[in-house]
Design goal:
This protein is an alpha+beta fold. The chain has helices at 2-12, 18-52, 57-61, 76-81, 88-95, and strands at residues 100-104, 107-116, 120-129, 132-141. The longest helix has 35 residues, at 18-52.
């Protein structure tokens, strides 16, 4: 769902000004923050249910990722460990899951972004063709 929203935003973004594009990026960051918060709350509820002895259906159907893994990609050393020709799985093992993804035929772009303050974004990307790294754009503050 999030990928679909992001793809639609990319298609619509040229019709809007820079301010509208920045608002879209901020909304996407807000969505990611809310998803992390929901994940944390799900873990807490699961722990409480386990403590009380009540089974948790949500926990069994959807395991939640650790909260710290979402910002794993911010470490510059990890970006320098990436190499052209590496597999998509190697990228995800090093940087963690991308915050979003774009696809154009066989080309996939793994996007890593986060809001810094109220007006800045840190973002980088890894371009893959046939699931192999063909380009790396190190994170920069925008």
């Amino acid at each position: 769902m999030r990928t679909l929203v992001f793809a639609l935003c990319l298609l619509i973004a040229p019709a809007f000004g820079a301010d509208d594009y920045n608002r879209i990026i901020r909304l996407e960051q807000d969505i990611r923050d809310l998803e992390r918060h929901v994940s944390t709350l799900q873990r807490e509820v699961s722990e409480l249910r386990r403590h009380l002895g009540t089974p948790s259906l949500a926990h069994a159907s959807r395991p939640s990722a650790p909260a710290s893994s979402s910002a794993q990609w911010v470490d510059a050393k990890k970006w320098h460990a990436l190499q052209l020709g590496a597999s998509e799985m190697e990228v995800i093992e090093i940087l963690g899951p991308p915050t979003s993804m774009r696809r154009d035929g066989e080309v996939r772009i793994l996007l890593y972004a986060m809001e810094i303050g109220s007006s800045g974004f840190l973002s980088g990307s890894v371009t893959l063709e046939n699931r192999k790294v063909t380009a790396i754009e190190f994170p920069v503050l925008k």
